[in-house]
């Protein structure tokens, strides 16, 4: 049975969602706040999350951000925030769909079905993402060639973004916007030195003969290379 995680602090609405989704054949877990949502995300690995944005304590924006560090599972935002800027922010932050309260039950079910139909198996970043690398979001670290590397928050977000786009160039502007939250692309040297620190940690963990998986693309940005080609350190 497909498990869904519903994150909703209104107990009456949460119960109504559980009844509605259970009747449609889903197994439903409920979280009333952001911290409980993240705990259940780790423990149960649901196939899809229905997320309210206005939550006590850790809000839905932070839950969405941390979820995208751990998983590519579909996220349907179900919120009373109906302004265009809220929709745009949520979609840019990694939400797959956005539905405003109050909503039609049939539309909610149809959107969930569509998201599950498009999604493949859950892509959890805490699992092996390639032969040599495994991300460990709960410790903000990475296993590189069998050795654990402790990373700063910026280093982890940088590596996670490069890995998510492995094989493709991520521009300096994109890295500033998504890792440093610098949409104006000011302070481009931060990317250069951030990548340098990350490369040093990977090299130290892998040894002098291990390949450097982060490729500099002159004038554009950086790319995480997934080939098994090894080159001497230089």
Automatic annotation (TrEMBL):
InterPro entries (alphabetical): CheY-like_superfamily, OmpR/PhoB-type_DNA-bd, Sig_transdc_resp-reg_C-effctor, Sig_transdc_resp-reg_receiver, WalR-like, WH-like_DNA-bd_sf
Tagged with keyword Transcription: yes
Record-level GO cellular component terms: cytosol; protein-DNA complex
Gene Ontology terms: biological process: regulation of DNA-templated transcription
Residues that bear 4-aspartylphosphate: 52
MF GO annotations: phosphorelay response regulator activity; transcription cis-regulatory region binding
Alphabetically ordered keywords of this record: DNA-binding, Phosphoprotein, Transcription, Transcription regulation, Two-component regulatory system
Database matches in SUPFAM superfamilies: C-terminal effector domain of the bipartite response regulators, CheY-like
Occurrences of domain OmpR/PhoB-type (ranges): 125-226
Gene3D superfamilies: 3.40.50.2300, 6.10.250.690, Winged helix-like DNA-binding domain superfamily/Winged helix DNA-binding domain
Ranges where the Response regulatory domain occurs: 3-116
Keyword RNA-binding found: no
PANTHER family according to UniProt: REGULATOR OF RPOS, TWO-COMPONENT RESPONSE REGULATOR ORR33
Protein name: DNA-binding response regulator
Lineage of the species this protein comes from: Bacteria, Bacillati, Actinomycetota, Actinomycetes, Kitasatosporales
């Amino acid at each position: 049975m497909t498990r869904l995680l519903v994150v909703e602090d209104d107990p009456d609405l949460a119960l109504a969602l559980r009844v509605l989704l259970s009747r449609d054949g889903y197994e439903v877990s409920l979280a009333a706040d952001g911290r409980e949502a993240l705990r259940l995300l780790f423990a149960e690995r649901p196939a899809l999350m229905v997320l309210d944005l206005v939550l006590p304590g850790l809000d839905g924006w932070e839950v969405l951000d941390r979820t995208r560090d751990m998983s590519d599972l579909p996220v349907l935002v179900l919120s009373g925030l109906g302004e265009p800027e809220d929709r745009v922010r949520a979609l840019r932050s990694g939400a797959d769909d956005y539905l405003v309260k109050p909503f039609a039950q049939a539309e909610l079910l149809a959107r969930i079905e569509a998201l599950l139909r498009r999604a493949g198996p859950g892509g959890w970043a805490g699992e092996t993402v390639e032969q040599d690398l495994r991300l460990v979001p709960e410790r903000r670290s990475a296993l590189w060639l069998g050795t654990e590397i402790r990373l700063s928050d910026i280093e982890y977000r940088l590596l996670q973004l490069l890995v998510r786009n492995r094989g493709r160039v991520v521009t300096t502007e994109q890295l500033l916007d998504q890792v440093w939250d610098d949409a104006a692309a000011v302070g481009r040297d931060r990317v250069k030195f951030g990548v340098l620190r990350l490369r040093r940690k990977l090299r130290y963990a892998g040894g002098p003969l291990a390949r450097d998986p982060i490729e500099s693309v002159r004038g554009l940005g950086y790319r995480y290379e997934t080939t098994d080609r090894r080159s001497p350190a230089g």
